[in-house]
Amino acid sequence: MGNGLLIVISGPSGVGKGTVCKRLLADNDRISLSVSATTRKARAGEIDKISYFFISKEEFEDMVKREEFLEYAYVHGNYYGTPKKYVLDKIENGQDVLLEIDIQGALKVKEIYPDGVFIFIMPPSMEELKKRIINRGTETEEAISKRLEAAYEEVEHVLKYDYVVLNDEIETAVKKIEAIIDAERCKVSRQLDIINKI
User: Fold this and answer.
1) In this structure, is residue 19 part of a structural domain?
2) Taking a C-beta distance cutoff of 8 angstroms, is the pair 162, 119 a contact?
3) pTM score above 0.70
4) Each residue's pLDDT tens digit in the chain (198 positions)?
5) Cα dist from 171 to 5, 12, 117, 181, whole Å
6) What does the alpha-carbon distance between residue 149 and residue 126 come to, in Å, rounded to a whole number?
7) Do 147 and 109 touch, CB atoms closer than 8 A?
8) Axis crossing angle, helix 141-155 with helix 126-136, rounded to the nearest 10
9) Is 176 exposed, middle or buried (0-12, 13-18, 19+ CB in 10 A)?
10) Residue 73, phi then psi, degrees to nearest 5
11) Domains in the chain: how many in total?
12) Which stretches of the chain are assigned E, i.e. beta strand?
């Protein structure tokens, strides 16, 4: 078996990335979710090395200096990052790794690991996206406006991705992502070890 794939999924808030990723993971044994490192304290029910790698600020900053992250960010007083070794070890062992990440993070990953499969999840329309955010019932009117404004900006980055998948219906979106993964596995550039044996 050859190397696994790094599958990077992004899209605007409210588009349903989390739901799509959960279904993809539930239906595919070969895909595992990337585990991020963070300096925040573990919450009730979270398990070290499964939910996150919980590390100190000093340890995180040392890892940054040693360039041990595919990407990282400082959010609400804490660091979050994707450990390079964890991801690359899994890929080298034939495991596909799924990374659900914001657009800024995805573009940083692409600089370091351009061989990844970058998929942008698109809403059927901005009107539908607004409806989904409102239906969550967790956002103020002002927060909804900010999310939609951010969504318009995020959609402008779609051309930097390899694929775009419309999330009109979860099952269909997941099937399309599975088809992309199958096609990527069949790429000549990923099959050279087999081809060279013939």
Assistant:
1) yes
2) yes
3) yes
4) 579 999 999 999 889 999 999 999 999 999 999 999 999 999 999 999 999 999 999 999 999 999 999 999 998 899 999 999 999 999 999 999 999 999 999 999 999 999 999 999 999 988 888 888 888 777 788 888 888 888 888 899 999 999 999 999 999 999 999 999 999 999 998 887 777 787
5) 22, 19, 20, 15
6) 10
7) no
8) 140
9) middle
10) -150, 160
11) 1
12) 6-10, 31-33, 37-38, 53-54, 69-75, 78-83, 96-100, 117-122, 163-166
Where residue 170 sits, what CATH number does that domain have? 3.40.50.300
Q: Which two tokens stand for residue 12?
A: 């605007």
Note whether residue 1 is domain-resident: no
170 touches 20 (CB < 8 A): yes
- The CB-side HSE value for 54 (13 A sphere, CA atoms) comes to 9
- Pairwise CA distance, residues 148 & 166, whole Å: 17
Q: Residue 68 domain-assigned?
A: yes
Domain range enclosing 108 = 6-197
